[in-house]
Amino acid sequence: MALIGFLVVLALFGSGYQVLGRLRDSHRFPQRGRSVQAGSLRLNIDCSGRGSPTVILDSGMGVPALGWSMVQPEVAKFARVCSYDRAGYGWSEAGPKPRTSLQIAKELRALLDASGEKGPYVLVGHSFGGYNVRVFTSLYPSDVVGVVLVDAEHGDEEIRTDALLPPSVKDQQKKRDERNDMLDRLLAPLSFHLGIDRLRATAGWDGHKSLPQELRQALLYLDQRSEEAGMAENAADSTSWDQVRSAGDLGNRPLIVLTAGKPYDPDPLLSKEESDQQNNMWINVLQAEEARLSTRGKQVVVADSGHMIPYERPAAVVSAIRQVQAALE
Fold first, then answer.
1. 71-93 residue pLDDT tens
2. Which residues contact 128 (CB under 8 A, 6 or more apart)?
3. Model pLDDT for residues 118-127, shown as the tens digit of each residue
4. In angstroms, rounded to a whole number, what is the distance separating the alpha carbons of residues 154 and 314?
5. For the segment 31-51, what is each residue's pLDDT rounded down to a tens digit?
6. pTM score, two decimals?
C-alpha cells in the first residue's frame, strides 16, 4: 500500500510538473516566423538574411522548423534563408492526407509564393526532407539551382541493409522491434503527460546533449503538436519514395550529400562484421548513389556525427550550403 501510495503521489507530481511546464512554455516559446495563408492552409515560415539565391530548409520527419536553429543564423550571415513548418508541425495548420512528398512540395511552393519569397532556390533537405526537395525540384526545375541532402532518406535502405543479415538475426530484430513498438505506444503518452520527457530534456538525457537546454525544451514543447503529422508522413512513406524515384535525377545542379559517419546505433543482436557491413552499405553505397544524382554531385562524410547532423554538426551543414552557393557564382 505504501508503494502504491508513493507511485500515486509521484504520478500526481509528474503530471502537475508537466501541466505547469506547458503553461510556462507557451509564454517562453512564442512563434518563430510568421503565419502565411498558402492556398487552403495557414503555414509558418521563418526567414532571415539577404541575398539570392534563397536557401530553403526542409526538416526530417517529426522535426519542426525549430530544428534548424543551430544552422539558420549562420547561413543568414551570407544568404537569404527560410525554414518552415510543414503542415501539422510547429505553428502550421494540419494538412490534407495522405502526407506524401508530392503534396508537401506543392504546399511549399504555395507558401513561398504567398510569402513573397522569390527564387531561385537552394534546397536543403534533412532525412525525409530529402524526399521533398527532390520532388519539388522535379515539379519546379527552373526555380531550383542547387541542392544539399543531409543524411537524406533512401527508400531502399531497409531492404538492402536487411539483405546483409542472416534470417535468424532478421527474425530476432523483427520480434524486438514489434515488442518495442507496442511498448512505445503504451508508454510514450505516459512519459509525456507525467513529465518524464520534460525531465529528460532538462537534464540532457534525451540524446541531444549538443543542443542548448532551452532549445531542447522548445523542441519538446512542439513535439506533441508535431507527432500526428510525423505519423501521417511515415504512413505514406512508401508512396513518397515512389514519387521520388519518378522525379528522376538533379541534372547538373551543384549537389552536396552530407552523410553521417555513425549512421546506426550499436545493435547487440549484430556482430561487429554485420554492423560494419550495414554501415558500409549506407555510407558507401546508398548515400553514394544520392551523390550521383547530379553530374556535379559530391559526397561529404561527417565522420563524428550520427543521423541528426543539424544538431550534432551544424557547421557541416552551413559549410555545404556555402559550397553550393560558391559553385553558383
1. 999 999 999 999 999 999 999 99
2. 60, 61, 153, 233, 237, 240
3. 999 999 999 9
4. 21
5. 999 999 999 999 999 999 999
6. 0.88
Kindly list the structural domains of the chain, giving each domain's residue range(s) and its CATH number in brackets, ordered by start: 33-157+208-328 (3.40.50.1820)
pLDDT at 17 over 50: no
